Amino acid sequence: MVNEKSVVEFDPRDLNPQLLILARQSRGLTQNELASKMKVGQGTVSKMEAGLGHPTKEELEDFANVLNYPPHFFTQKRKVIGADISELYHRKHVVVSARTLNKVHACAAIRIMNIEDLLRSWEYNKPELPILPIEDYDGNPEKIGRTVRAVLKLPPGPIVSMTQVIEDCGGIIIKMDMETRHIDGFSRRGDNLPPVFFINQNLLPDRWRWTLAHELAHMVMHTEPSNKDIEDEANRFAGEFLSPAYEIKPQLWELSIPKLAGLKRYWKISIQALLMRAKQLGIIEDWKQRQMFMKLSKAGFRLREPEELDPPAEPPQRIQQMIEFHKTKLGYTDNDLQIALATSIDDIYALYHQGTAHLWEQINDIIEGEQAS
């Protein structure tokens, strides 16, 4: 891939050990694996990550080459934003390896740093998400779901686009390869930073909408750790936010698979979520719900409901707008971006230039072919 050389000066004595750890974890490497790629002992990597000693300029360049980050990435003096409440709770529930979790959360921390850099020049006035601690609402997430709809002045009926709701409130959505289907998404907040929602790029459209509503619940309701099951609270909020009880309840009587299919088309939430909603609202008994789930399983719809029932995809726009603003309005080149964001051109295209990385690789192949001839 075309990749101009970074010309930013760096002093290896300024190594930030936290950023070395993040870079290693973001590439899915253990200390021993990184050491092997660099042809050094694990002790060398361990000591650098512990802040014991400083690398030489050549050693830091080796870290940069192996991990595919520009050298000045490792010498930035900045605060690293770690896991938020929703991440702490999904760590308890998901069955994935520590390596995968570390990689996903390290990538998220680096994307937060990119957003902080982009926001220095990006100015926009958007309403902020309301903060409504659940303790102030009698522990009732449904009440908060209704309140947030009112605060945001959302009309009755299904929400047209959850992505637009989040972005209109100043939130930023980042699609990520979570490398597992066991993590749908999580969210982070920081000082002077909009809420950031990290969503699994492989989610189906109905699950995408539910996950955004679920994470919105965490951002709105859960400002402090709790002994309660905040995942259940977030799902209850999502159900009410996406399908208010006073509207959907009359539609849930005498359910059948065809009727559920029609309701999915209208409300844009999964058939399984509709069945859970019916149970939650006291419309359907346990035995009937189990029977309906068995029918879905027999039809092969538990993991993938019929594609023709999918709501439209809701790709996020804000992060792409920020990148395009820097390129078209501020005159940034791709090399300027990799210097400003302290990341590789490969990451910029893979993460922020939707659908253009393959084209760029083709252009690079043409250039290399011409040079060879």
Q: Which overall shape is indicated by the principal axes computed on the Cα atoms?
A: elongated
Overall pLDDT level? 87
Count the domains.
3
What is the overall number of helices?
A: 18
Radius of gyration: 23 Å
Question: Could you tell me the strand content as a percent range?
Answer: 5-15%
The number of distinct β-strands equals: 3
Low-confidence stretches: 1-5, 355-368
> How much helix, percentage-wise, in residues?
40-55%
**Helix-strand sequence:** HHHHHHHHEEEHHHHHHHHHH
SSE blueprint:
Blueprint: H1 17-26, H2 31-38, H3 42-49, H4 57-67, H5 85-93, H6 98-119, H7 141-151, H8 162-168, E1 172-176, E2 185-190, E3 193-200, H9 205-221, H10 230-242, H11 245-248, H12 257-267, H13 271-280, H14 286-298, H15 318-329, H16 334-340, H17 345-352, H18 357-372
Parallel strand pairs: 1-3
Antiparallel strand pairs: 2-3
Helix pairs in contact: 1-6, 2-3, 7-10, 9-10, 13-14
Summarize the structure.
This protein has 373 residues and is mainly α. The protein has 18 helices and three strands. A hairpin with a 2-residue loop joins strand 2 and strand 3.
Describe it.
The protein starts with 16 loop residues before the first helix and ends with a helix. A three-stranded mixed sheet has the order 1-3-2, sandwiched between helices. The protein has three domains: 64 residues, 434 Repressor (Amino-terminal Domain) (Orthogonal Bundle), CATH 1.10.260.40; 161 residues, no CATH class; 68 residues, no CATH class. It is elongated and about 70 Å long. Helices cover 53% and strands 5% of the residues. By secondary structure, the chain is mainly α.
